[in-house]
Design goal:
By secondary structure, this protein is an alpha+beta fold. The protein is built from 22 helices and 27 strands. The strands form six sheets. The chain has an eight-stranded mixed sheet with strand order 7-6-5-8-3-2-9-10, covered by helices on one side. Strand 14 (250-254) and strand 15 form a beta hairpin. The structure holds adenosine-5'-diphosphate (ADP) and magnesium ion. Residues 30, 33-34, 94, 99 line the site of magnesium ion.
């Protein structure tokens, strides 16, 4: 290492000022950075009482030359930079020359060091900034720093320290991050006499992560890589099923330095949007490498905040790496131990649901029989189909025999037809069929006209391009909720609602405007003033989502058209829900609002657990599902499919061990 110089005042003043030593963990951080800068391969940290009474950091780095020892404890004394220009491209972790001086000012510090050029080392003691001893001492090459009784001379500062456990946890947290960011260095952490962790230092990131964060954390990771725009990203991000309840498992590093960056978090979480459960956060250990001149690390004295000169590029790199990781995700495996833990509750829940459905169905039949009307047909058609209808089947047969309109309704119908055809001449085909002789008991909800957009063609193409489907066999359906299929040597279990919901979500998104169906009798929805205004401000957005809405006056909104998939749903409730969302999220960006609307649409339109599905529908549905790589999680992040291998089943039945 170069010789130590005291920086001239004009350079020193350029460096972000601030307290270096706030608590024991800040001492550890500074010392570890010095050990790493010194090229150490082994670093041991020992603490007692959360580091308040005792800290020892031992390394086998280059050591400090005898003649430099005193100087190292002077303010702004550093061997790492010597001119203002060096500040523009900092490649070492330390550069301010403040740490040793600051720590020595507020604690009892002992140093033991030797370089490989020297036969004998140095022992130096400095208490509260006062030199106590400088003597020769026998020691191995490297440096040991011991800090006793931090803040012994500033009782006021000592009072601000937390309990030993908490201070110890701060230290552990810093050490963990540093240990995983230097997998080629072996770190040992001893806390109150017990070994907390020890990394192998074999250069393998995964083994460092394993040593520090444990088995479960490591098994939930996917490799994440990205290269472009002079930025490289390496590391790991979590499988969506390994989402955690907080962001504490997210670790970002820039050029080897741990950083806090809301921008990086956003980039990561944007990639996981709709793949991870709401309220869960993807873990990650991500290393961003970019030219030293593209990042300013001199923003904050604690040095965890950085400023990127081209934020967008860094965002894209992190986002890209996370997306790449997600493509490597495989179907979640069914876990027998987890299933056991949840079994009683799940079974109870399902039984309840089924019996409810059966009772409902019975009532329906009775009602239908009593009335002997066409309602039976309508009720059955009401359960959404799992199978994406072919474009030509989207236009349902006009239900002329079942509809009736009084003269006013017929006028509205004519008026709507004219208005719609005129406005959307190129975009829609309309077929309307009116039979004034039909029964008058029919609900207005059934009086609808089918309208299909030109987008049909695109959908057709997309289906044709889907990946080939491997041979599978439907085993059956359980609890009217889970479809079982045999595929190669695996048994697949599919949650039909979750899978269908995701499929519809993707469909809505890809079309940007869903199939739209015009309502013969428009629905009027009465809203609160805020909701009413929010809807009127977002008519464009709603049109994109498949709804045609207009002002009906007196805080009422007229809905003239809705997405085909939602035609049997309660339009008024849907619009009220959207209106409430729009009024409370006025600042949210447009794509996010649309996403939310698609999401709620998909959830409503998807087949529900408990709905009856025919064998043919199941067959077609699974075929489509297996041809789509993008259908892995429902928009809430729940898996749509889990698998068990034949081997695993054989193990469960003790056919093999
Ligand atoms: P900085 O790290 O900003 O240069 P410090 O006050 O932390 O400032 O350290 C002052 C100097 O002491 C460093 O520049 C380095 O030359 C030397 N030094 C400190 N710790 C070690 C160590 N563990 N091994 C070798 N040299 C060290
Ligand atoms: Mg330093």
């Amino acid at each position: 290492m170069a010789r130590i110089n005291v920086l001239p005042k004009n350079i020193a003043d350029l460096i972000a000022a601030g307290e270096v030593v706030e608590r024991p963990s800040s001492v550890i951080k500074e010392f570890l950075e010095n050990s790493i800068d010194a090229g150490s391969k082994n670093i041991t940290v020992e603490i007692k009482n959360g580091g308040k009474t005792y800290i020892r950091v031992t390394d086998n780095g280059c050591g400090i030359e005898k003649d430099d020892v005193r100087k190292a404890f002077l303010s702004h004394a550093t061997s790492k930079i010597s001119s203002a220009d060096d500040l523009d491209s900092i490649s070492t972790l330390g550069f301010r020359g403040e740490a040793l001086a600051s720590v020595a000012a507020v604690a009892k510090v002992e140093l033991l060091t030797r370089t490989e050029n020297e036969e004998i080392g140095v022992s130096y003691k400095i208490f509260g900034g006062e030199e106590v001893e400088l003597a020769e001492a026998g020691c191995p090459v490297g440096t040991t720093l011991i800090v006793r009784d931090l803040f012994f001379n500033i009782p006021a500062r000592m009072k601000f320290l937390k309990k030993d456990v908490q201070e110890g946890n701060y230290i552990a947290s810093i050490l963990e991050k540093i240990a995983v960011s230097y997998p080629h260095i072996s770190f040992k952490f001893i806390r109150d006499g017990k070994l907390n962790f020890s990394t192998p230092g074999d250069g393998d990131l995964k083994s460092a992560i394993y040593a520090v964060f444990g088995k479960e954390y490591t098994e939930g990771l996917l490799p994440a890589e990205y290269e472009g725009n002079g930025i490289s990203v390496t590391g790991f991000t979590g499988k969506p099923t390994a989402g955690r309840g907080s962001r504490s498992g997210q670790h970002f590093f820039v050029n080897g330095r741990y950083i806090k960056s809301p921008m990086c978090i956003t980039a990561l979480e944007t990639a996981y949007k709709n793949s991870i459960m709401v309220g869960k956060f993807p873990p990650c250990v991500i290393f961003i490498k970019l030219p030293f001149s593209a990042v300013d690390v001199n923003v904050h004295p604690a040095k965890t905040e950085v400023r990127f000169f081209e934020e967008k590029k860094v965002f894209d790199a992190v986002y890209g790496a996370a997306l790449n990781a997600l493509t490597l995700d495989t179907r979640p495996k069914a876990s027998f131990s987890v299933a056991k833990a949840f079994m009683p509750e799940v079974v109870k829940g399902e039984q309840l649901k089924i019996s409810e459905t059966v009772t409902e169905k019975k009532d329906e039949v009775k009602f239908e029989e009593e009335k002997k009307t066409v309602i039976t047909e309508k009720t059955e058609a009401k359960a959404p189909s799992l199978v994406t209808p072919k474009p030509e089947t989207v236009v349902k047969e006009p239900i002329s025999t079942k509809l009736t309109f009084n003269s006013r309704e017929a006028q509205t119908l004519d008026f709507l037809k004219d208005e719609y055809v005129n406005k959307n001449e190129k975009q829609f085909n309309i077929s309307i069929n009116v039979n004034p002789d039909a029964s008058s008991t029919e609900e207005p909800k059934a009086s609808k006209t089918e309208v299909v957009t030109e987008k049909d063609e695109e959908v057709q193409i997309a289906t044709e391009e889907a990946t080939p489907v491997p041979d599978f066999r439907i085993v059956g359906e359980a609890f009217k909720t889970y479809i079982f299929a045999e595929l190669e040597n695996k048994l697949l279990m599919i949650d039909k609602h979750a899978a269908h919901e995701r499929m519809l979500f993707e469909k809505f998104k890809s079309q940007m405007k869903s199939f739209q169906q015009m309502l013969l009798v428009p629905v009027t929805v009465s809203l609160s003033p805020d909701e009413y205004n929010a809807v009127l401000e977002n008519t464009e957005l709603l049109y994109k989502a498949g709804y045609e809405v207009s002002d009906f006056g007196d805080r009422c909104i007229k809905v003239s058209a809705c997405p085909t998939e939602l035609v049997d749903e309660d339009i008024s409730a849907i619009i009220t829900e959207i209106a409430s969302y729009l009024s409370t999220n006025s600042k949210t960006v447009m794509p996010e609002k649309l996403d939310w609307i698609y999401h709620s649409m998909a959830c409503r339109a998807a087949i529900k657990a408990g709905n009856t599905t025919t064998d043919i529908e199941i067959e077609k549905f699974v075929k489509e599902l297996l041809s789509r790589d993008d259908i892995r999680y429902c928009p809430h992040g729940r898996p749509v499919m889990v698998e068990i291998s034949k081997r695993e089943l054989e193990k469960q039945f003790k056919r093999i061990v």
